[in-house]
Amino acid sequence: xxxxxxxxxxxxxxxxxxxxxxxxxxxxxxxxxxxxxxxxxxxxxxxxxxxxxxxxxxxxxxxxxxxxxxxxxxxxxxxxxxxxxxxxxxxxxxxxxxxxxxxxxxxxxxxxxxxxxxxxxxxxxxxxxxxxxxxxxxxxxxxxxxxxxxxxxxxxxxxxxxxxxxxxxxxxxxxxxxxxxxxxxxxxxxxxxxxxxxxxxxxxxxxxxxxxxxxxxxxxxxxxxxxxxxxxxxxxxxxxxxxxxxxxxxxxxxxxxxxxxxxxxxxxxxxxxxxxxxxxxxxxxxxxxxxxxxxxxxxxxxxxxxxxxxxxxxxxxxxxxxxxxxxxxx
Amino acid sequence: xxxxxxxxxxxxxxxxxxxxxxxxxxxxxxxxxxxxxxxxxxxxxxxxxxxxxxxxxxxxxxxxxxxxxxxxxxxxxxxxxxxxxxxxxxxxxxxxxxxxxxxxxxxxxxxxxxxxxxxxxxxxxxxxxxxxxxxxxxxxxxxxxxxxxxxxxxxxxxxxxxxxxxxxxxxxxxxxxxxxxxxxxxxxxxxxxxxxxxxxxxxxxxxxxxxxxxxxxxxxxxxxxxxxxxxxxxxxxxxxxxxxxxxxxxxxxxxxxxxxxxxxxxxxxxxxxxxxxxxxxxxxxxxxxxxxxxxxxxxxxxxxxxxxxxxxxxxxxxxxxxxxxxxxxxxxxxxxxx
Amino acid sequence: xxxxxxxxxxxxxxxxxxxxxxxxxxxxxxxxxxxxxxxxxxxxxxxxxxxxxxxxxxxxxxxxxxxxxxxxxxxxxxxxxxxxxxxxxxxxxxxxxxxxxxxxxxxxxxxxxxxxxxxxxxxxxxxxxxxxxxxxxxxxxxxxxxxxxxxxxxxxxxxxxxxxxxxxxxxxxxxxxxxxxxxxxxxxxxxxxxxxxxxxxxxxxxxxxxxxxxxxxxxxxxxxxxxxxxxxxxxxxxxxxxxxxxxxxxxxxxxxxxxxxxxxxxxxxx
Lengths: 330, 338, 270
Description:
The complex is a heterotrimer of chains A (330), B (338) and C (270). Chain A has 330 residues and is of the alpha/beta class.
């Protein structure tokens, strides 16, 4: 009995000293010096409790890391997850402007201790924000690696290390799942459009083109870089098997859009049109692919299902919108 | 006989006094407006006792005041430069951008946006370089053609169109960045800082002083280079100096805030309709008019009651300026004879 | 300060066209010289050379004994003033503002005009009996009135040499004579006055000497009585006329024999 008691006491002692050590580590964690996507060296003085997000992908990442209670401001395009919309309606999260039309004054009015912005679209606001005495960290969203390192950087800054690991893991698992299953199959030729007139597609060098590769697709516009315009002749020559249009909001309803593609001269010879493998992704389904955040996981599965139905045995409808999650078995 | 010119001096002082009072009033009103609701006493308190409310004082001192100051400086420079260029080219339809400078600045900014090598703070620098190099190119071409002020306008149009053409190509191939470039083109003060204001002031102040100092000779240049030379002015040199200095001022402001049009064209005319064409009076008053226009426009843009976030300042200046200009035209159009 | 003017063998060419060919003129202080000739003979070009708006290809112009090229703008504007055709500028300036521009070379203040300059401007307009034009917008004046304002501007420059291109064109008879009187008075005060004129009779009456230009060359020079003859009028102007000098009023009377257009020639215009 005594032996057990003393062992227990020894254990308790060890636990409490471990606790003290942990607390000490946590206390000495800040101030923390990090380097952001623009190479700026930023000092995080203490654990951030009032965070403003400048872009939807950043908002979604913050929520995925379990930081919902600490977000006090976001851009007007952010709309996910549901918890975010609830907090916004309750007035706990303020809207601080559009993405390219961020309002530094509104940002400062939320008294944030951390402001997160998109490096390429919002870099111009950095001098004004710093002039207001705010701590600004800029994130890049160009490659899948960027997305992963953004997860890690944000986790590091907010001391949500285990959550960060989990989110990165989810993404890696999805990538692994899909790419391993499709690797033994011929890549499907796909035309991925973000706009129908003119036809805007992604060349290589964007994270979308990476996702296409991962999901077993061959991007017919992949020989060019960045966002590119494709003309109908190029499409007919490349003859994609699948056509995907991803747009948050459509200018015509899906049936009209299908008819539009079918009506383009010469398109009746394109495999994608002939086999009715035209897919329109809109609203949340589109966001899952276009926001460089945690929902890329969904995006990878969507692409995989569309490009290789023979592998995943899931037949997605030609139009995917807000209810896409039901098709992903969730 | 008529002691007219003396009362002219009096009239000018009176106008300047009234405008300055107006302007200071508008300035103070501007600091009261913004997305964060602050009452006037809050604002004044934030300036006097910054420690009481650090958030309010950082907004007022670190954002609103520099923004309004920079906006008014830009309006001032645009108004004066517009008057100068109209006189130098003897063309009432000229504005400071007639030299192709605006297209050059836009092209410089676009390159800074698109080429990954350049950091985000390179935009003003490249815009400035782009604007000035197009200006120098126009001058060079005009000198080669030797055709005087009309030749200069044509050279400016040619150079500007060429720069615009290249800009269009850049916009086409850089679609995801295009939004940022286009937004810069609209003109906006939402990113203005103390640093912008200081740099712009340092460059524009000596330039403005020089231009105002030479206002009398500028009047004489209205008769043409030949006649001005016969009256004793080193007209070729003065013409070039005035052109370069006013363009320099515009270039430095515009490279920070983007191309804001209409003011350089219209502010001098608004003043001329009331006062006549003596540049000694027209130029400073055009400057103040430009400042007022821009500050009022920016107030409309920044007003929290405005549902459209960050409307382009340039379109607001046109929207408020045009009706006023039309009113003046109708009222005084007959004396605007040519 | 009075000054003499020497034009020595100047040539001006545009392309292969000789505008001025070896023109030589000498004018002393206190003298008024008229340059006459048909349209296109080079009168205005000659004045432009002397006012330095154009550079001749060869030859020299000497002002007060020094080559014109050697002066800078300011110095030259104190010696030579020119009244040349004016382009409309599109910006309304008041007449007195334009006259005041002539005082620029005497300006002591860089910005505002001093009282001395205002006096000069008023005097210049006053002596031309144009004070009623003082406050008027220049662009609203008639051609004749505009000319008066421009002459006033030249006078305000207070130079020793005054060049005037067609100063009395568009003026009615009374003002023609008034302006010529003023110019004569200035010459009598010691200034050197050079005018181009179409009015041969005025030139003969008011000027000591006359130079006749034809196709860019000096074809005659000397006292009006000797130079203005029917032969000259016929060879230079292509006009058949009788020239009589009235001894009493010392004034030439030129009676052109006009050609009546025969009825047939102009019948298609009816």
